[in-house]
Design brief:
186 residues; alpha+beta; Pnp Oxidase, Chain A; nine-stranded antiparallel β-sheet; 3 helices; 39% strand; binds flavin mononucleotide
């Protein structure tokens, strides 16, 4: 098999793994590390849940519109994503452009997909990250919410599989809507 065909096969596998991460609750790709860099030029990282992967490999997660990550994304839409599967010793590093989706378009997602007990994540009276008064009491909004969806359109994906005798590292880049892969020294 020619190397180019092999990278196509690897791309197919990594896409399947990402889709499984969004559909299978116990899959290690269900959670990923999202890195953002705002105007302060300091990387800020956090764990988020992978909610959906589209056929064009767009990735989606849910968050509060007032959170720091949204402030960062508005300042700089380039984000980094890190996925790790410890059973397969497989790491994916993704770079992409993030878009915040809010308003009427996603009101239906909130109504249909967010169970009552999870709505607390998007309805705190104060913005996430605000220091609490000594009482530690968290107050919630009754009517409104600050739910939003973030869509990430990847432009680079780096695949690393640790294995013997040789690790496998492939960098995929998207140009004019087409993905191409090249092997890298692991
Ligand atoms: C297991 C786990 C899953 C999480 N999933 C999400 C998520 O899907 N969306 C989200 O906004 N925060 C999620 N969080 C909280 C974030 O890691 C983070 O603490 C929070 O969003 C505030 O981040 P920020 O201040 O950098 O915006 C999760 C945390 C853990 C531990």
């Amino acid at each position: 098999m020619k190397p180019m065909e092999k990278t196509d096969q690897i791309f197919k596998i990594l896409k399947e793994e990402l889709i499984k991460g969004s559909t299978e609750k116990s899959h290690p790709f269900r959670y990923f590390t999202l890195g953002t860099v705002g105007l302060d030029r300091v990387t800020r990282q956090r764990t988020v849940v992978l909610r959906k992967v589209s056929d064009e490999l767009k990735l989606y997660f849910y968050t509060d519109l007032r959170s720091k990550k949204i402030i960062h994304i508005k300042e700089n839409s380039k984000v980094g994503l890190l996925f790790y599967n410890p059973e397969k010793l497989l790491q994916l590093k993704i770079e992409g452009l993030a878009t915040v989706i809010k308003g009427k378009a996603i009101a239906e997602t909130y109504d249909n997909d967010i169970p009552e007990n999870a709505r607390k994540d998007y309805t705190t009276a104060l913005a996430p990250g605000t220091p609490l008064e000594d009482s530690g009491v968290i107050e919630y909004l009754k009517e409104e919410n600050h739910f939003c969806v973030v869509e990430i359109t990847p432009f680079k994906v780096e695949y690393l599989k640790l294995q013997r005798p040789e690790h496998q590292r492939v960098r995929f880049s998207k140009r004019q809507e087409l993905w191409s892969g090249e092997y890298l020294v692991p």
